Amino acid sequence: MKKKDLEIRLQRVRNFIDPDSSLEQYMTPSVIASDILFTAYSEGDINGMDVIDLGCGTGMFTIGAWMLGATSAKGFDISGKAVTVARENAAAFGADLEFTECDISDVTMRGDTALMNPPFGCQKRRADRAFLDKAMELCGCVYTMHMTSTAEFLNDYVNAAGREICLQRRYRFNIPHTFSFHSKTEQSIDIVMLMIR
Question: Distance between CA 103 and CA 55 in Å, rounded?
């Protein structure tokens, strides 16, 4: 599958219903998700691998990993509403995928690769760290998204955990007007994808 074909297919993944601002529920744009997924695929971290998606939302990365030949792809999210939509999305693609409603601190299932778009910490400071810690605990390779402004700190944080950032890629993440506190029709933020081994 070509990256553009993956992006087009991922555009069919449905968004959150009644998103929760405290959980920073913004769906990863298909153009960003497909680039991260295809990067992981090209690095040999998806096809034939066991993939976990922490904070899976409506299933974008889980479904994308399945499309690219993951042996297993499992999603975990604290939001029951998000998990319901993720299951519906998977069914629409004919994908028999497992989505579990739980706090990510309770996830014990190990995998080869973690793919995730954790909360950036805009609503709850340092919210992304619990996701990063859990992903590094469970998987040998981690693809994760964070605010670009935190990249230098995260490099030190990852190194202190005995791991290394092997690849970085930067994006502009467009967030549509979703919550009452949003003052603009759309806002763009600078994010960085980190590949950690």
Answer: 9
Q: For residue 187, give both structure tokens.
A: 């806002």
Residue-wise DSSP of 9-61:
HHTTS---SS--GGGT--PPPHHHHHHHHHHHHHTTSSTTSEEEEET-TTTHH
Question: Could you give the CA distance from residue 163 to residue 160 in angstroms, rounded to a whole number?
Answer: 7
On whether the CB atoms of residues 121 and 189 are closer than 8 A, the answer is: no
- Give me the residues paired with residue 2 across strands: none
Q: Please report, for residues 15, 38, 143, 163, the alpha-carbon distance to residue 190 in angstroms, rounded to integers and kept in the order given.
A: 21, 20, 17, 24
The 8-class DSSP code of residue 173 comes to E
What is the torsion angle, in degrees rounded to the nearest 10, for the CA atoms of residue 175, residue 176, residue 179 and residue 184? 100
pTM of the model: 0.93
pLDDT tens per residue across span 28-74: 999 999 999 999 999 999 999 999 999 999 999 999 999 999 999 99
Give the position of tokens 């944080």: 157
Write down how long the chain is: 197
C-alpha torsion angle, residues 100, 106, 107, 109 (rounded to 10): -110
